[in-house]
Specification:
By secondary structure, the chain is mostly beta strands. The protein has one domain (7-112): YopX-like domains (SH3 type barrels), CATH 2.30.30.290. It is 12% helix and 41% strand. It has helices at residues 22-30, 92-96; strands at 7-11, 16-20, 39-48, 54-56, 59-63, 66-73, 76-83, 100-104. It has a four-stranded antiparallel sheet. A hairpin with a 2-residue loop joins strand 6 and strand 7 (76-83). It is globular. The termini are far apart.
Length: 120
């Protein structure tokens, strides 16, 4: 199996996400260019949403009226449904191709608020 390894880093200091490689992270850490406790590293799942956008760990997805977060648990990526839990499945591969990525939990935490999204 050939899987592309990509990462995205969210900087708590600057409040934004940027693509990076694992080598960038190692260099930043070794040269003291960043405090690694101030970044969140998000790994590419190897899957894309219905619009072809790369799905990363911590992305927020919407399928129908349901909203969930891509999470890495016990060696695999799953969906943690947080609003309108209409789906029984947590399998990312089953849902991502028909869902839309609407943000990530670091830059858009308000998307996970049921009150703002008319959720349950």
């Amino acid at each position: 199996m050939n899987r592309e390894l990509k990462f995205r880093v969210y900087s708590k200091r600057y409040g934004m996400s940027e693509p990076c490689s694992i080598f960038d992270l190692q260099i930043m850490d070794e040269e003291g260019l960043t405090d690694m406790s101030q970044v969140e590293i998000m790994q590419y799942t190897g899957l894309n949403d219905k619009n072809g956008e790369n799905g990363f760990e911590s992305d927020i997805i919407k399928e129908g009226n349901s909203i969930g977060v891509i999470t890495f648990v016990d060696g695999s990526f799953i969906i943690d449904w947080v609003i309108n839990k209409d789906f029984w499945s947590y399998t990312l591969k089953f849902h991502l191709s028909s869902a839309k990525i609407i943000g990530n939990k670091f830059e858009h935490p308000e998307l996970l608020n049921a009150d703002e999204n008319g959720g349950k």
